[in-house]
């Protein structure tokens, strides 16, 4: 089992890899430690791994050096949860009763590629990637602004300079990634679909024999529909993940698609729904 000091050294290394920088405040957010304790941890890290950090005097923080190499192994899922939602992935030595998620089998993540992605989002710079899509594998220059999880996998939302538009990219399909010096000109404020909200009105499938139980699952509390607010870029992912029947005549199998979209007439021009939702035809 790691000592507290080893955990702090690992945490410093984690921030340097996935954020590109780390300060005493970062360490103090992860535990009830004093400034002096955090300072000792930094001194120890610099003694053991002297070529990994450079102190930025103007920002009063340590940044990853050009020769930085992770001194510990890190879980990329932990980095994505921290950057996406501010959640800390932590475990304690206790008896457990759950099973491992099988979803990770289909979403193999490279720590080095995840690090390039998270640093690009946090520090606002572009990355050149080799991306494998359904049609081809090609280089693209991306300007990412957000992370999300959908269809059982982690994605980024980014400006694609080749397609001249904002797109969603599955991180596990990024085969190579590196920082490039180019103007970070497209930000989240420019992403119209990301900033346009839509309401998805769903209800228990009309052809399911246990609609009352489905209503309990939805927490409908006597209501006829449940409204879910998301943005236009993510609407298709939400409907797909919830297994919502979006056909005009509720023709999908109700035991596979427990829910039904009730306001499809209001969503006929939402691109993510057209592209991602089974059975949806405008």
Description:
- With 282 residues, this protein is of the alpha+beta class.
- The protein folds into three domains: 4-74, Winged helix-like DNA-binding domain superfamily/Winged helix DNA-binding domain (Arc Repressor Mutant, subunit A), CATH 1.10.10; 103-191, SH3 type barrels, CATH 2.30.30; 196-276, no CATH class.
- The protein is built from nine helices and twelve strands.
- The longest helix has 15 residues, at 4-18.
- The radius of gyration is 22 Å and the shape is globular.
- The model has no long low-confidence stretch (mean pLDDT 90).
How is this fold's topology laid out?
Elements: H1 4-18, E1 21-22, H2 24-29, H3 35-48, E2 53-56, E3 61-64, H4 76-85, H5 111-123, E4 126-132, E5 137-150, E6 153-160, E7 165-170, E8 174-180, H6 192-195, E9 197-204, H7 211-218, E10 226-231, H8 235-241, E11 244-245, E12 259-261, H9 271-276
Parallel strand pairs: 11-12
Antiparallel strand pairs: 1-3, 2-3, 4-5, 4-8, 5-6, 6-7, 9-10, 9-12
């Amino acid at each position: 089992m790691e000592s507290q000091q080893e955990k702090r050294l690992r945490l410093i290394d984690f921030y340097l890899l996935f954020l590109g920088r780390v300060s005493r405040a970062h360490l103090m957010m992860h535990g009830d430690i004093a400034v002096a304790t955090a300072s000792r941890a930094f001194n120890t890290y610099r003694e053991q791994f002297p070529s990994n950090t450079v102190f930025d005097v103007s920002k009063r923080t340590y940044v990853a050096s050009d020769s930085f190499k992770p001194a510990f192994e890190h879980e990329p899922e932990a980095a994505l949860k921290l950057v996406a939602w501010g959640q800390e992935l932590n475990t304690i030595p206790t008896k457990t009763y759950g099973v491992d998620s099988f979803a990770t089998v289909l979403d193999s993540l490279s720590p080095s590629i995840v690090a390039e992605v998270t640093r690009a989002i946090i520090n606002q710079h572009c990355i050149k990637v080799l991306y494998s899509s359904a049609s081809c594998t090609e280089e693209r220059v991306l300007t990412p602004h957000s992370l999300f999880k959908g269809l059982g996998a982690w994605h980024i939302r980014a400006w694609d300079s080749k397609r001249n538009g904002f797109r969603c990219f599955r991180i596990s399909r990024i085969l190579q990634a590196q920082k490039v010096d180019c103007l970070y000109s497209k930000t989240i404020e420019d992403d119209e679909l990301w900033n346009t909200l839509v309401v998805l009105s769903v209800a228990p499938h009309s052809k399911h024999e246990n609609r009352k139980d489905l209503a309990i699952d939805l927490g409908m509390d006597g209501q006829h529909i449940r409204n879910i607010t998301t943005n236009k870029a993510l609407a298709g992912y939400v409907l797909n993940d919830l297994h919502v029947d979006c056909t005009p005549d509720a023709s999908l199998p109700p035991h596979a698609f427990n829910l039904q979209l009730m306001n499809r007439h209001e969503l006929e021009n939402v691109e993510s729904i057209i592209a991602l939702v089974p059975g949806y035809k405008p």
